[in-house]
Design brief:
The structure holds two protein chains of two kinds. By secondary structure, chain A is α+β, with helices and mostly antiparallel strands. Helices cover 36% and strands 28% of the residues of chain A. The longest helix of chain A has 17 residues. Chain A is globular and about 35 Å long. Helices cover 39% and strands 11% of the residues of chain B. Classes of the chains: A alpha+beta, B alpha/beta. Chains A and B meet through β2 and β4 of A and α1 of B.
C-alpha cells in the first residue's frame, strides 16, 4: 500500500478559534474552518508522518472511530484540501518539513 | 450568515481579538495634507519588541494582522517583521503608499504569502495626487509599484480618500483601478489629528458632494437601497454595539500603545509594560467600550438612523464623548437619506433658541 504524506502549504494563514481551526488560502483568500477531527489531522501534518499513522495515533484514539472509516474519511478530507492548495500531498516525506510553522492554540 | 461572519461572531462571543491593526512606524516619505499623524520617531518598538508582541497576538488568537504606518517600508526591518508574522501564520494585509516597492519588494511580499496590499491613491492626475502627498512623482511611483505587485499575482486594493482637492477625481481613480486590474475603495472620512488638532477637518468634502457620492451607482451599488430611509430600529438594533473596535479589533501604535481602533485614540495600555492579552482582557477603557450599546447613547438612541448609521465611536470620542454623536456620520446619514439626525435636529433647536435677540420688521406702508 502506498503511504500518503501531508504537509501544510506555506501559502496559508491559520489560527484556532473556539476549538476549530480557521484556515485561509493566501493565494485566493478562500476561507475554511476545520472540525475537531480535521483540526487534529491538520495539526499533525508535519510532512514526515504518514496519514495512516496520524489517523491511528490521533483520530482513532481521541475520537473513538474505527480505523477503516477514519482513514477513508481522512483520505477524502486531505484530497479535498489539496485541491484548494492549502494541504500538500506526496507519496514520500517532504524535505525540510520539520520547519513547518505551527498555529498558536 | 457567511462562514467569515460566523467566525467573527464566535470571536466576539469568545472575546478574541481576531483583527489587529499594527502601525509599525509613523515615519513616512510622504507628507499628505490630510494625515493625522506626527511623523517624528518618538521611540518606536524595536524589532525584538515587535516580534514579542506578534507572539502575544498569535497566542491571543489574532488571525488578521494589518501592518501599516506611516509608511511601513520606512522600517529597515520590515521584511524581517513580515517574515516573522507569516511564520506565525497571520493573514497579513499591508497598507502602504507603495512608493518604495520595486520588483524585488513585490516578489518578496508574494513569497511571504501576503494576503492583500492596500495602496493610497488620491487622484489619477499626477498634479492633484502629488500635491496631496507633497512628494513629486509619487503617483507615477505608486502606480508602477501596483503593476509590480499585480504582475506577481498579489491582490491590491486602491484606497481613495476623498477631500476637497480631489473630490471630483474618484471616477478617474476608479478607471485607473480598472485599468490596473485591482479593487477600488473610497473613503470620504477625514479624521482629526491624533493630538486633537481639528484644523484638517476643513479638508472634508462638503455635504453636497457627499450626497453625489452616495447617489453614484458605481460607488454604492443599488442607490435606492443605499439611500433608503432607515427602518424603525428594533430591539436588536438597540442592543447592538457600534463596531468591532475593542470587541474583536485592536490597534497598536509604533510606541506600543494599545487603542480600541486606529481611529479611536483612547489609551488602553502599553505592550512595553503589560502583555497584550492582559490589556485586552483587563483594560478598564476597553471594557468600557465593550459595555456600550446603542440604547446607552444619550442622543443617538433617539435618532431614526440608530439602526443603520455608520456612527464611529472613535470620531465621537474625538468630539468629546464615546457615547456622543459623530457629526461626520450624522452628515453621512443625512446626505444618504435626506433625513436629519437627532443630533442635527438638536443643534437646529439650539441655534433657533440662540437666534437674534431683536427682530425688526419693516413697517408696511
Amino acid at each position: 500500500m502506498t503511504e500518503t504524506y501531508i504537509a501544510r502549504s506555506p501559502a496559508i494563514a491559520s489560527r484556532m478559534l473556539g476549538g476549530e481551526m480557521m484556515v485561509m488560502s493566501t493565494v485566493d483568500s478562500t476561507f475554511f474552518t476545520l472540525n475537531p477531527v480535521a483540526t487534529v489531522i491538520w495539526q499533525a501534518a508535519d510532512g514526515n508522518t504518514p496519514l495512516s499513522e496520524i489517523v491511528a495515533r490521533h483520530v482513532c484514539k481521541d475520537f473513538e472511530i474505527d480505523p477503516e472509516t477514519a482513514l477513508r474519511d481522512a483520505e477524502h478530507f486531505v484530497k479535498e484540501l489539496s485541491t484548494h492548495g492549502i494541504l500538500l500531498l506526496s507519496d514520500r516525506p517532504f524535505p525540510n518539513s520539520s520547519a513547518a510553522p505551527t498555529e498558536a492554540a | 450568515m457567511s462562514l467569515m461572519q460566523e467566525m467573527s461572531q464566535r470571536a466576539l462571543d469568545l472575546g478574541v481579538p481576531m483583527s489587529v491593526h499594527f502601525d509599525v512606524t509613523y515615519r513616512c516619505n510622504e507628507r499628505c495634507v490630510h494625515c493625522y499623524l506626527d511623523h517624528d520617531d518618538h521611540g518606536e518598538l524595536t524589532t525584538a519588541e515587535i516580534k514579542r508582541v506578534l507572539d502575544e497576538l498569535a497566542d491571543a488568537g489574532t488571525f488578521f494582522l494589518t501592518l501599516s504606518g506611516g509608511e511601513v517600508l520606512m522600517r529597515r526591518d520590515f521584511f524581517e517583521l513580515l517574515e516573522y508574522a507569516r511564520l506565525l501564520l497571520f493573514s497579513v494585509r499591508i497598507k502602504t503608499n507603495a512608493v518604495m516597492i520595486g520588483e524585488a519588494e513585490a516578489r518578496r511580499m508574494v513569497e511571504l504569502g501576503v494576503d492583500q496590499v492596500q495602496v493610497s491613491i488620491y487622484s489619477h492626475r499626477p498634479g492633484v495626487h502629488d500635491a496631496i502627498t507633497k512628494l513629486p512623482g509619487s503617483l507615477r511611483r505608486s502606480v508602477e509599484a501596483i503593476r509590480f505587485l499585480t504582475a506577481h499575482g498579489l491582490k491590491v486594493v486602491i484606497a481613495n480618500v476623498l477631500m476637497t482637492s480631489n473630490m471630483r477625481d474618484h471616477a478617474g481613480v476608479q478607471a485607473l483601478a480598472r485599468d490596473l486590474g485591482v479593487q477600488y475603495t473610497l473613503d470620504p472620512t477625514i479624521t482629526p489629528k491624533m493630538d486633537g488638532d481639528t484644523s484638517i477637518l476643513n479638508l472634508r468634502i462638503p455635504g453636497s458632494e457627499l450626497g453625489a457620492v452616495f447617489r453614484n451607482q458605481s460607488l454604492v451599488g443599488d442607490v435606492e437601497q443605499f439611500c433608503a430611509p432607515p427602518p424603525a430600529p428594533d430591539e436588536d438594533a438597540m442592543e447592538g454595539y457600534p463596531c468591532s473596535a475593542g470587541h474583536t479589533l485592536a490597534y497598536i501604535s509604533p510606541y506600543g500603545d494599545v487603542f480600541p481602533c486606529v481611529q479611536f485614540p483612547l489609551p488602553s495600555g502599553n505592550v512595553r509594560r503589560q502583555k497584550f492579552i492582559d490589556i485586552w482582557r483587563n483594560s478598564s477603557e476597553l471594557n468600557e467600550v465593550r459595555s456600550i450599546r446603542a440604547k446607552d447613547l444619550p442622543v443617538c438612541s433617539t435618532c431614526s438612523h440608530v439602526g443603520t448609521c455608520t456612527r464611529c465611536p472613535g470620531l465621537a470620542y474625538m468630539e468629546g464623548s464615546m457615547r456622543g454623536p459623530s457629526t461626520a456620520d450624522c452628515e453621512k446619514s443625512f446626505q444618504r437619506t435626506g433625513i436629519r439626525s437627532a443630533n442635527m435636529l438638536r443643534k437646529d433647536r439650539n441655534n433657533a433658541a440662540l437666534g437674534p435677540l431683536i427682530q425688526i420688521q419693516a413697517a408696511v406702508a
